[in-house]
Amino acid sequence: MQKHDRLKFFAGIFFAILYCCAPIIYAVESLTFNVAKITANDWSLNRAVLKITTPSQAPPKVSLQSATLQLPPPLQFIKDVDIKCKHFLWQENNIECSQGHGRFSLNKFKTFSFDFSARFKDNSSTININQLSFLGGNISIYAHEIGEKWQLRIKAQDINIIELASLLALDYVEISQGTVDFEIESSGEQNELQAILVSALFEKLSLNDLQGTLASENVKMELQFSANKDKGGWQWHNSANLQEGGLYVEPVYIEFDTKNSIAFTANGLWQQEQKLIQVKQFKLDHPRVVLIQGDAVISHQSGTDIKSAKLKVKIAQLEHAAPVYLLPFLESGTFSEIELAGIVEAQLNVSQGSLSKVSVNIKNLVLDDAEKRFSMHQANAQINWAQSEKSVSPSFIQWQGLKIQSIPFQAGQLDFISADNQIKLLKPTNLAVLGGFLSINHFSFSTTENNTDASIHFDGSINDLSLEQLSKEMDWTPLTGEISGHIPSVRYHNKTLSLGGEIKMQVFGGEITIKKLASSGLFTDFSQFYTDIEFDHLDLDTITHKFDIGYIEGRLSGTVQKLYLENWQPVSFYAWVGTPEGDDSTHRISQKAVESIASIGGGGVSDALSRGLLGLFSTFGYNKLGFGCYLHDGVCQLMGVEAIGNGFYLIKGGGLPRVDVIGYNPRLDWKILFDRISRITASDEVIVE
Description:
Layout: H1 3-20, H2 22-27, E1 30-40, E2 43-53, E3 61-70, E4 77-91, E5 94-106, E6 111-121, E7 124-134, E8 137-146, E9 149-160, H3 161-167, E10 173-189, E11 192-209, E12 214-230, E13 233-249, E14 252-256, E15 262-271, E16 276-286, E17 290-299, E18 305-315, H4 318-326, E19 338-351, E20 354-369, E21 374-386, E22 395-399, E23 401-404, E24 407-409, E25 412-419, E26 422-425, E27 429-433, E28 436-447, E29 454-466, H5 467-473, E30 481-493, E31 496-500, E32 502-507, E33 510-520, E34 528-539, H6 540-546, E35 552-553, E36 555-566, E37 569-578, E38 588-590, H7 591-601, E39 604-605, H8 608-613, E40 619-632, E41 635-639, E42 642-644, E43 647-653, E44 661-663, E45 667-669, H9 670-682
Parallel strand pairs: 21-25
Antiparallel strand pairs: 1-2, 2-3, 3-4, 4-5, 5-6, 6-7, 7-8, 8-9, 9-10, 10-11, 11-12, 12-13, 13-14, 13-15, 15-16, 16-17, 17-18, 18-19, 19-20, 20-21, 21-22, 21-23, 22-25, 23-24, 25-26, 26-28, 27-28, 28-29, 29-30, 30-31, 30-32, 31-33, 32-33, 33-34, 34-36, 35-38, 36-37, 37-40, 38-40, 39-44, ...
């Protein structure tokens, strides 16, 4: 039995008894009916007492008392029902009650009271309930029926949401405070609802769900929903306005007030039989932050399935939108400390539950990383993406300023195509950097189907990069020379970036070659770096003029093998640098350079006479020099150019005056060794050990 039928059935029994007993009542002053139980589908009236009194010279009075009225959830058991009609009138086809008063108890709640009036005719009926003190507030109810058509209006003020949630058994949220005013207007014919309007105003609403993913604090929110049924289905309209307070929807937190409110509107068609919802238009407006508009078709045959959707997003000031809607998603990632500014317009298409097409236009983009790892200024971009490469338009990004780590790039542009899980460079590009060029011949990036890993392929070259500019930007000791090299392959796989081929640097009158370069976790809290480095015939005269270690003439070759760094700190390597075999260049070394090398290796000058006369000479001849270190577990195993007794030569003298520098400590803590090298390159104070 529908709600409408219950009302008619109950009222019919009540007033049919009155109508049938009218002649009897006029003959007596009081008449009482005891009813054990009246049931109809999912409701029942138990132990009811109907009493009719007709005092002389006064209008008749009617009262109804019942121990229990059982209704469907959430009302369930209504107890101690007591209804009295102070002024009662019945005539042929007309029954009226005015100045009625009632009360009842509901489950664990206190007793509720209300005033009412009612009128029933052959083809119409009206009931008014006022001043119903319920859930901390007041409720009024108006119901009217004429023929087969009916109307119902419920108006409530200051309803306590904590008590309302308890009544409705909303055990999936915890509510600490809040009130609501609401009004419900509905109309229909027979048992069919044809129109409904619901409006509500929530104030000081504070709640949270049990999972901690949703919370509100002192929220003031206005809601409205309306729906009308026609031959095509239900035409509906919905609106919401968040006016005050704070709202958290993991991980986004938004505060709003009268100057920063959020408005949402939507309208569409619900086809009940087809289980289809058409959202003809929806709009979310967060002034000065973001504007989102679109449409959608949603199926609820089995679960919720987005059949199609179009979404347009406009961000006029990215610096306002990013902290609210973007950065919370990046808090635990690499890009958590970035600042963004610019204008963004985007369009997203969804088909059969999956994203099918994206178009993003970015103007005047400014991107700065607080940790100085990268930055971009005065950038513009058009980024297009589609599931199929055949249906996507080209994309580009251009900038006036770009910096990666400390390396600045001049103005440039990249043209690429983005489809499915892949990005590919459309044409070779030369990027101006450090007085030279980074030439990119090929670049592609792709992810696995489950996005757990990525793959990068790169082919390019470095052409004439200035070491002078590089050392300046990296805050190194000034260097001269150029870096050039072909990079036939760069791959990123299993979260590791690896370099195929080698990079050659023409520097210090010789050549430095970098091989087997690989890295993982570059932009994380735990970066790892691997490489091999070769030095070939570097000019010691040029090197020693750049570092404050003294003057040396000659050539230097060497290697660093299996260099491994964690967070840019050496963990292990094998390194050797020394005089190349067959080197026929002039070999001279200054007194300061002798002292510097001696301090690094912990050695001393072996020849007693030379030690005594060391201060009389500014330079010395040498046969060869060299220094090696095998780093493992924080300790360097030291070595020199040649063994001697219990030590090893760091400098083996030659000619006159002759000087030898011999190291006697084959093991040295890496931190101590590093401090010694740093000290002699940064200060004039060097101690000969």
